[in-house]
Amino acid sequence: MRWLTLLLPAVLSVAALADQPMATFSGFNDWLGSETRGVRIGADGRLRLAPNLRRVGQLPEGVIWAAVSDGAGGAYLSAGTDGKLFHYAGGQVKPLGQVKGGIVFALARLGQDLVVAPTGEGKLFRVSPAGEVKPFADIEARIVWALAVEGDAVIVAGGAEKGAVLLQAREGSSRRLAELADETAFTAMTPDGQGGWYLGSHGRGLVLRYSRQGDRLETLMDTPFEEVRALAVAEGQLYVGADNGLTPKFSTGQLERREGYLQADTASTARSAVIRLDRDRVPETLWQSAQSQVYALTAWKGQLLVGTGNRSRLFSLPLGKARDADPFAVVQELGTAQATAFLPAGGDLLVVGSNPAELHLLSEAQATEGTLESKILKGAPLADWGRAYLESDLPTGTNVELQFRTGSTETPDATWSAWTPPLRSGERPALPPSRFAQFRLRLSSTRGGATPTVETVTLHWAHRNLAPVWEGVDIMPPGLVITRTAPPDDIGIERVPLETQKLIPALGYMGAEKRSFRRGGASFVFRVNDPNGDALEFTIRLLPERGAPLLLEKAWKEKFFSFDTLPVPDGRYRLEVTASDAPTVPFNAALASTWRTAPFLIDHTPPAIAELSAVPEGEGVRLRFVARDETSVLKEAAVSADGEHWLQIVPEDRVFDQKEERFDVIVPREAVRGDRILVKVADQYHNEQTAAVQVGTPAKR
């Protein structure tokens, strides 16, 4: 019956079943998609309690653009987009004043006063501790990224109309020290310890040194990044924070909000890096990231701290030989979007955060508690969540707790379940199947300096199997055949009905299927998908209007099906197709779903021609006949004198819409050759009948 059993050999190999998912968190990148507070992530992937961090101040503005120490443990701050200034002192943030112009990206403390540089003004202003604002100097810079005090003068690094400029300003005057027309601006500045300045630029991301001897500007390094955002000097070595795409965001006043739970992507292009230039100016990349961008650097307590966004993580790069054992770590996370500045505050460190604008105090003392919320785990599309195994080292007085929660939204919200009670390692969480899940670790210590260490968390779950989902089965026009190779005795496109010819080149399916025509062929296209992405197989049955079903295929793998209907009696049928995910699912978990098509006809019997007559009349021949079909509506009729050239004709009522049609046609004399006329009729299933009549023959009833 079917051609495809001959053309497509059976697949003998058994498809491998999908592995049950699991996740192991042990390496540094495994934890990067997590939210941490008070937990240190080491380069080796171990989790420990972090240095203590506490929030000490908040501002109503979203972004703190610049910060400078007030010399007494507090800080002056610029925030917002309209030149607002604030003073943090004694644990409180108070408004200080406001300068006209754009965003203030740079501040410097000159004596008891503050020198500020609003964007686009070409001016420096002096602000007293009481908030009084006075002009300080005009400068040839449209944007200022860094200010520093040198005696009674202020060093200005920024950008002018014609490139990067370095200026010296005193009250009432300014002069140019250096310029670099090829760069947009100098974006970072720090003293070189020899009376000069290290500079970073935007454009080619250069690291430069300005020397007082001869006012000379020297390029030390051309980084592979667009800009140098931060510089720090420690133990005679220069540390460079380089980024791509950060300066334009500053310039427009649009720093992004905090990013959500991230997936680690180590294959992505680096967005930022920290590079060290040693005393011999040999560069070494100490750290780089495809996700974070560097906003600030500072040397503190034998380590280089890196303030990043848009997760406000504080990375630590140990200075000296300690780096060999522990090259980097995430030591804290502010909970804001960016960590934009570091300021000394006695023995502690004031850390500036933005989006929202906050001040945090980082101390060397260890936190007594910390939490880590994992990246979001995803079922496909639902999962049964299994056991988690925790490997940790717990000195006396320390503890680690493991909890779970689940939800239906990709970002946890109020619809998620509450956290489970703490679970023992290997204990199954009592959670219903869900699409998303997350675990939380809570590290704690009751002994000063003692910390638990988390080595590994291993999770197991199983995707909940769902039945295939049907959209439908498309019934192709009669005679259309879809195969991987052409069916035997393919008769070619020239005899394919016009409406089927139009479909054949348009039927584009994945793979190399062939579309062709054969009388008696029936084809179907399955529109079905599996929610789990499992491979499908199909059981196909032909259901007659009366009688027992006929099994056509029980393990069909394609999403199309063709069979030869010639051995099947005429009548009305449905195709029943059952899709099963058994090829890639354990047999006791396999699911199936069924679709039945609308009724369709199988018709192999040609129409009958009766009452055929051909009688001369006037200048032609009057041709009369009746055509009847037992199963389907008639589709076309034609007459011919020689069997090669046919004239299409229509019935008396001009519409082919019945199983029986009556024809009454005057055939022109020039179309009749000899005394014989041929008549041909066809039904919708391309069954044809032909009859001949002698001219002068009356109709027989």
From TrEMBL:
Gene3D superfamilies: YVTN repeat-like/Quinoprotein amine dehydrogenase
Region (Disordered) location: 410-431
SUPFAM superfamilies: Calcium-dependent phosphotriesterase
InterPro entries the UniProt entry points to: WD40/YVTN_repeat-like_dom_sf
UniProtKB keywords: Signal
Superkingdom of origin organism: Bacteria
Signal sequence segment: 1-18
Record protein name field: WD40 repeat domain-containing protein
Organism: Geothrix oryzae
Organism lineage string: Bacteria, Pseudomonadati, Acidobacteriota, Holophagae, Holophagales
